Amino acid sequence: MTHRIAVCDDEKNMLRQISSYLDQWQKETGNELEPFFFSSAEDLLQNMDRKTSLVLLDISMGGMTGMDCAKALRAEGFPGEFIFITSMEDYALEGYRVHAFAFLTKPLVYGELKQALGEFTAKHSAKRPAVIPVDTAGGTKIIRISSILYAEVYGRETSFILKDGTRVDSVIQLSSVEEDLARYGFFRCHRSCLVNMKYIENISGTELTMADGSVVPLSKHRAKEFMSSYARFMKVDLR
Predict the structure, then answer these.
(1) At what angle do helices 110-123 and 12-29 cross, to 10 degrees?
(2) What's the rounded Cα separation, in Å, for the pair 12 and 138?
(3) How far apart are CA 208 and CA 213, in angstroms?
(4) CATH number assigned to the domain comprising residue 153
(5) Domain boundary residue among 83, 99, 123?
(6) Which of 103, 118, 213, 218 sits most deeply, having the most CB atoms within 10 A of its CB?
(7) What DSSP designation does 207 have?
(8) How far is CA 234 from the centre of its chain?
């Protein structure tokens, strides 16, 4: 599936950087993008194809701001997503009003854009259920990703705990599936555990309670990053 993306920034160097990052992301992930670049909000409003599915907008530009541009598009009924790129951090409330998908800060870091694009494509992928192949003692088992509560390490094995109570033991390393599952709302909350944030019922200190009542550890060193990722996930998943 090819996603049509509009990128708007009044700095030519920024447009070149984003273009380079988008090329790199496509090569790494195999996803296809069709990007269009605009140097002002006015130009974007006048010329952007309304079938565009994602708009990357600089907030602070000469003339119309990126936020005002987003409001104008929403007033038209534009259904696409917005990722705002800004050096300022005081637009959260306005971002909620236009249903912002994400905020990225300048200077733009490739890893942050990569994560946001991964979350976007995961949300807007084809309706076919996402699955992951897992090597077990009895052969390769295909697991529906949405059925995984969490995965944990025991010795040399990784166990996948599913919603129906099933436990699938595998010889694969947790790190080998971490990046793929992160696109679907999973977070490495501890060196021995990867949780599906969709099924977290309670957060308490250094523990997470899952939908089946089981308790998994939350590393103190990962707590801050976890809370940030969880807040972003909840905003995207519940909208």
Answers:
(1) 60
(2) 55
(3) 10
(4) 2.40.50.1020
(5) 123
(6) 218
(7) E
(8) 11
Residues 83-131 have pLDDT tens digits of 999 876 556 556 666 778 888 888 899 999 999 999 888 877 655 567 8
pLDDT digits (tens, 9 = 90+) for 51-76: 899 999 999 898 999 999 999 999 98
140's tokens: 């390769």
Q: Give 28-73 as a DSSP string.
A: HH--EEEEEEESSHHHHHHH--TT--EEEEESS-SSS-HHHHHHHH
Domain range enclosing 60: 2-123
**What is the count of structural domains for the chain?**
2
Same domain membership, residue 45 and residue 101: yes
Q: Are 101 and 197 within one domain?
A: no
Say how far apart CA 140 and CA 133 lie, in whole Å: 6
Q: Which of 102, 123, 144 is the last residue of a domain?
A: 123
The CATH number assigned to the domain holding 93 equals: 3.40.50.2300
Reading phi first (left if > 0) and then psi (alpha if -120 to 50, else beta), residue 91 is in: alpha
Q: Is 145 helix (H, G, I), strand (E, B) or coil?
A: helix
